[in-house]
Design goal:
heterodimer, A: alpha/beta, 9-stranded mixed beta sheet, two-stranded antiparallel ribbon, 15 strands, globular, B: alpha/beta, Rossmann fold, 7-stranded parallel beta sheet, about 30% strand
Chain lengths: ~250, ~325
């Protein structure tokens, strides 16, 4: 099994979000970048396939040189090789098309991506990638077993889950559940040292027609003051929810 | 020009988000000077979509499609869009729709923008407002492709009735075995209970509740309100509640009318995930909890005393307003 894990370089979940250049760009000042959490669950599952089923695991990202610390972290966690497509990830179609090139040339039969990146939240890269390459696709994947070329996947649905059977070649949009939070790995010193020597190929992007473009960003309007209700007078909350907020 | 809308259903009945998507499609059709065509799959009462602005229904009846299948459904929509010459396609934000929309986008070489929260700001150029950075911000995004797909956020645009009527035509797309290469084996779904995605009210518990054995009152409160239950990330990581209940930046987003947070301090990741809820209530014994800055109503107090009282008051309220 040859696995490609697609990694997005995103602001840490605790980041405060600000915009710059007339609200046209995300302000990276003081922001810590990490492996997109949905991708990290997938990477950790890929490590399991490497250890238990002798899979080869490569990681790929679409981004500038500033994304390399995040890629090195994926290598330190245990990926064998990395590929960086040297381009700004402008929209989901662009990113999926770049990754499709890598999957085609690399001959991967399992592609693990996150269900969405926590920055631009497009949630479309794995689905577009699968369709461009005519590979099977399971989104919001919370469980994956592979036996030969047969795969059993579980996906989260609204109000429950669904078990699916399919086969390789397969693309999944993964999330928490593929592995548990407690299974996530912090790179150790040996992993970090080894990661420095691992191959990180940089490739140039292919041309893609632009479909969408973010023109401007804004922050939500700040919330007004909270209305406090006395703990001894809970009935007042019921009143407010009925008469003022009109939600019950 | 035709605006196509995928009107999602569950066991033959249209979902709330289908009516919201249809309402949104009607708005877009008005803006661009066109009419709305809906695609339905194995549904009843198709003509009722007229009330939400649909002029024509392409009705698909096919036993193979009784269980949702993303690739097959995307193929149905692709053929419908081509047959109808649709340039704008409206879909919802359910888990199923977010599964099929990227496939549809690739098949039609369409630009797809999900999580859209308002009617288009302009249609030439075509610009929509969507959430970004996991609800910590908004983006105004231009779609420049010939065919455009818009995913409408739950409970953002709203359902608008206009008393129109729709013509229903049968539509028979051609599907092949390849469309069913991912097969459903088993669906494990809560029945008869509101889900976080659809619920008008969500009641959520955090680590302040001290242990899974104390969730009885959360469930009782949810029952009284007809609400879905949810939880914070630490609670799901500790295994107190199933992962499907985790709401927040890396869990499910919540866009309900009312969100009640009990014993949740309000970490930035949690607040981001629930920020689309219209009214937020926090119950916490720590007056310094960050959630008080993000909530509309708050009670500083011990959840184990406040929640049972709230349940009692709500029962009285329900009895009076029944």
């Amino acid at each position: 099994m040859k696995i490609l894990v697609c990694i997005s370089n995103v602001p840490d979940t605790t980041s405060k979000i600000n915009f710059t250049e007339g609200d046209t760009k995300f302000d990276t000042n003081g922001v810590q970048f990490v492996i997109n959490p949905n991708d990290e669950f997938g990477l950790t599952r890929a490590m399991w396939f490497k250890e238990k089923q002798s899979a080869t695991v490569h990681v790929a990202t679409v981004g500038g040189p500033q994304t390399e610390p995040t890629i090195r972290k994926a290598l330190a966690i245990g990926a064998d090789e990395a590929i960086r497509v040297n381009a700004e990830p402008t929209d989901g179609f662009f990113v999926a098309t770049q990754l499709a090139e890598i999957v085609k040339t690399g001959g991967y039969n399992l592609v693990i991506a996150g269900r969405e990146s926590i920055d631009y939240n497009g949630g479309m890269v794995p689905g577009i990638l699968a369709t461009l390459l005519d590979m099977n696709f399971v989104n919001t994947c919370i469980g994956l077993e592979v036996d030969g070329t047969n795969a059993t996947a579980t996906r989260e649905i609204d109000g429950g889950k669904e078990k699916l059977s399919t086969s390789l070649p397969l693309v999944i949009g993964g999330q928490k559940g593929l592995v548990q939070e407690s299974d996530l790995r912090i790179p150790n010193m040996r992993g970090i040292m080894m990661a420095r020597k691992k191959v990180l190929n940089v490739v140039e992007p292919v041309d893609v027609v632009k479909h969408t473009q973010d023109q401007k960003f804004e922050k939500p309007t700040p919330k007004g003051q909270v209305k406090l209700v006395d703990a001894e007078n809970v009935g007042e909350l019921v009143e407010l929810l009925h008469n003022e907020a009109k939600v019950i | 020009m035709s605006v196509l809308v995928y009107t999602e259903s569950d066991k033959g009945k249209f979902k709330k988000n289908a009516l919201e998507a249809a309402s949104y499609a009607h708005k877009v059709a008005q803006e661009v000077g066109g009419s709305v065509t809906a695609v339905t799959i194995n549904t009843e009462d198709d003509a009722t979509l007229g009330n939400y602005g649909v002029s024509k229904v392409l009705k698909v009846s096919n036993g193979q499609l009784d269980t949702f299948n993303a690739k097959a459904y995307a193929n149905v929509l692709t053929q419908a869009a081509q047959a109808d010459g649709a340039k704008v396609i409206i879909v919802s934000s359910s888990a199923d729709t977010k599964f099929l929309a990227p496939i549809l986008a690739a098949k039609l070489s369409a630009g797809y923008v999900p999580n859209v929260v308002a009617a288009p700001e302009s249609t030439s150029p075509f610009v929509v407002k969507r959430t970004a950075f996991s609800n910590k911000g908004f983006a105004h995004t231009e779609i420049s492709s010939d065919v455009k797909i818009i995913g409408v956020s739950n409970n953002a645009y709203g359902i608008h009735e206009n008393g129109g009527s729709a013509n229903v035509e049968d539509f028979s797309p051609s599907l092949s075995g390849a469309d069913f290469a991912v097969k459903s084996i088993e669906v494990d779904k809560v029945v008869g209970k509101a889900t976080i995605a659809d619920a008008d009210i969500v009641v959520s518990g955090g680590r302040g509740l001290k242990g899974p054995e104390n969730w009885g009152m959360v469930e009782e409160l949810a029952d009284v309100l007809g609400a879905a239950t949810a939880c914070s990330k630490p609670v799901s990581d500790l295994g107190w509640r199933p992962h499907g209940e985790h709401v927040g930046q890396t869990g499910k987003p919540v866009a309900s009318n009312l969100y009640i947070a009990i014993g949740i301090s309000g970490a930035i990741q949690h607040l981001a995930g629930v920020s689309a809820s219209k009214t937020k209530v926090v119950i916490n014994n720590d007056p310094e909890a960050p959630f008080f800055k993000a909530a509309d109503y708050g009670i500083v107090g011990d959840a184990f005393e406040v929640v049972p009282k709230l349940i009692e008051k709500l029962k009285e309220f329900k009895a009076q307003n029944a």
